[in-house]
Amino acid sequence: MRVDARQNRERIVASARETFAADGLDVSMTEIARRAGVGVATLYRRFPTKEELVREVFAEQLEACTSEVSRAAEDPDAWRGFCRVVEKLCEMQARDRGFSAAFLTAFPDTVPVDELRTRAEEAFAGLVARAKATGRLRPDFTLDDLTLVLMANNGLVTESVDATVAASRRLVAYFLQSFQARDPLPPPVRLGLRDALG
Amino acid sequence: MRVDARQNRERIVASARETFAADGLDVSMTEIARRAGVGVATLYRRFPTKEELVREVFAEQLEACTSEVSRAAEDPDAWRGFCRVVEKLCEMQARDRGFSAAFLTAFPDTVPVDELRTRAEEAFAGLVARAKATGRLRPDFTLDDLTLVLMANNGLVTESVDATVAASRRLVAYFLQSFQARDPLPPPVRLGLRDALG
DNA sequence: ACGGAAGTGGAAGACACCCTCCACTTCGAC
DNA sequence: GTCGAAGTGGAGGGTGTCTTCCACTTCCGT
Questions:
Q1: Largest interatomic CA distance in chain B
Q2: What residues of chain A lie within 8 A of the CB of B160, using their CB?
Q3: Which pTM was predicted?
Q4: Is residue B136 within 8 Å of B78, Cβ to Cβ?
Q5: A197 and B159 in contact by Cβ < 8 A?
Q6: Mutate to test the interface with B, among A91, A149, A171 (most CBs of B within 10 A)
Q7: Among A151, A158, A178, whose Cβ lies nearest the Cβ of B156?
Q8: How confident is the prediction along chain A (198 residues), in pLDDT tens digits per residue?
Q9: Is the distance from CB of A93 to CB of A100 less than 8 angstroms?
Q10: Interatomic CA–C1' length for residue A37 and nucleotide D27, angstroms
C-alpha cells in the first residue's frame, strides 16, 4: 500500500472513531469521508462496506474491553475486581455512543470478536465465582446480570457525554449496592436472558 | 365524517398501535397503511404527519401512565405506592417498544402532554416525600432517579416482549432494593440529570 | 523523467423514507 | 335514482441513505 494511501486510511479510521463516538453509528459515510478530508470512493476502497468500517473501528475498543476484564480478574480482592469491571465497562460504554450499538448490531457474527468475547466472559465468570466465595457478591448473581447492567447502561443517552457518564456512574453505584451480599431481601426473579437473546 | 372513513381511521390507529408496539417508531407509513388495509393517502388524510399519528396513538398510553401514578400516589402505604409506580411504568415501557421512543422524540413540545406529565410528576413527588418520611425510601432519592430508571429500562431491548418484560422486572427489583433506606452504604454521587437533559 | 499501477474525487445508481397530487370511487341526503 | 361532496389508492416528487463507476491524479520503481 502506498504511503499516501496509508495516511488516508488512518485519517479515515480516526475520523470514523471520533464521529461514531460522538454521534453513534448512524452517521453517513459521506460525513465520515468529509471529516477525514477524502472522497467517499477512498473510504470505500479501504472498507467495502460500512459494517467493515465499524468492525475496524471497534476492534480496538473491544480489545481494550477484554484486557480490562482480564486485568481486573487477577485482582487479589475479587469483589474489588468485580466492581472495577462493571465500572470500567459502563464508563467505556457511556463515553462512546457507537460502542454498544456496534456490539449489538454489527458484531454478533464476527469470529475474532466472538473469540475475544468468550475469553472475557470466562475471565469474568472466574471473578464472579471468587467474589461469591468471599461472601461479598450475592450468590444468585448470574452472568446474565452483567448483560442486564450493560443493556441498562446503554439506555442512558443524553445530550452531553459528561451527563451520560454521570448518570452511568450513579446507575452503577445502585447496581453494585444491590449486588452486594447483604441483608437477605427477596432476590430478583431468576431469568433466562441468555436463552432469550440467543 | 363518513362512517366508512371512521372505520378506516380506527383501523389505522389500531394498526399503528400494534406496529409501533412491536417494532418501534421506525416503521414506515406505507407499512402501517398496508397493515390497516388502506392506501397511504387515507392515512395522510387523517394524520397529516407521522408525528401526529404517533401522538394520537400514545395519547391514550400517556393517560394510562399518569392515572397509574395518581392512583398509586394515594396508596396509604407510601413505599408500596412508590414501588408500584416504578414497577408499572417499567412494565408498560417494556411491553411497548414505541412507548418510550415516543416520549423521548415526538412529545417534548406538546402542550397537553406536558400538562399531564407535570401533574404526574407532582403526584410522584408527593409520594416520594411521604415514602421518605416513613423511613422506607432513602432520603437522597431524587426525581432524577426515576428518569434514570426509565432510561435504563429503555435500554432493555430483546427479541421477544416476554424476555424484555422479564429483564425489566429483574432490573426493577435491583433498583428497588437499592432505593430502600437500609444499611447506610456510601450513596451514589449526586447528579444534575434534569439540568443536563433540559 | 517516465510509465503504469495504485489511488482518488465526485457524480450518479439503487433504494427507502415521508409526504403530495389527482383521477377515480363511494357514501348518503334528497 | 341522482349528484355533489367526502373519501380513496397508488404513482411519483423530494431528500437522505449506502454503494458503484470512471475519468483523472499521484506515487514510485526503473
A1: 65
A2: 196
A3: 0.87
A4: yes
A5: yes
A6: A171
A7: A151
A8: 899 999 999 999 999 999 999 999 999 999 999 999 999 999 999 999 999 999 999 988 888 889 999 999 999 999 999 999 999 999 999 999 999 888 776 455 555 667 888 889 999 999 999 999 999 999 999 999 999 999 999 999 888 899 999 999 999 999 999 999 975 444 455 554 544 443
A9: yes
A10: 19
For Cα atoms B21, B22, B24, give the angle at the middle one, nearest 5 degrees.
70
User: What Cα–Cα distance (Å) separates residue B20 from each residue in A162, B27, B41, B90, B108?
Assistant: 31, 7, 19, 17, 18
* pLDDT attached to residue A116: 80
Give the mean pLDDT of B161-173.
97
Question: Which residue minimizes Cα–C1' distance to D26?
Answer: A4
**The dihedral formed by the CA atoms of A151, A132, B141 and B95, expressed in degrees to the nearest 10:** 30
Query: What cell numbers appear for A123 in the block?
Result: 475471565
Q: Do A159 and B189 touch (CB under 8 A)?
A: no
The reply to whether the CB atom of residue B39 sits less than 7 A from any atom in nucleic acid chain D is yes
Which of A156, A157, A180, A182 has the most B C-beta neighbours within 10 Å, making it the best mutation to test the interface with B? Answer: A156
The A-side interface with B (CB below 8 A) comprises 145, 148, 151-160, 162-163, 166-167, 169-171, 173-175, 177-180, 182-183, 185, 187-189, 191-193, 196-198
The 3-state DSSP class for residue A2 equals coil
DSSP string, B151-194: HHHHT---SSHHHHHHHHHHHHHHHHHHHB--S-PPPPPP--HH
Spatial separation of the C-alpha atoms in residues B147 and A176, rounded to whole Å: 19
What gap in Å lies between CA A31 and CA B170, rounded to an integer? Answer: 40
**Closest to B102 (Cα-Cα) out of B146, B151, B57, B147:** B57
The residue whose grid cell reads 470512493 is A41
Q: Which helix (H) or strand (E) holds B20?
A: helix B3-23
Q: Kindly give, in sequence order, each residue whose CB lies less than 8 Å from that of residue A144, ignoring residues fewer than 6 positions away.
A: A191, A192, A193, A194
How far from chain centre, in Å, is Cα A6? 28
H helices present in chain A, as ranges: 3-23, 29-36, 40-46, 50-73, 78-95, 97-101, 111-133, 143-154, 161-179, 193-197
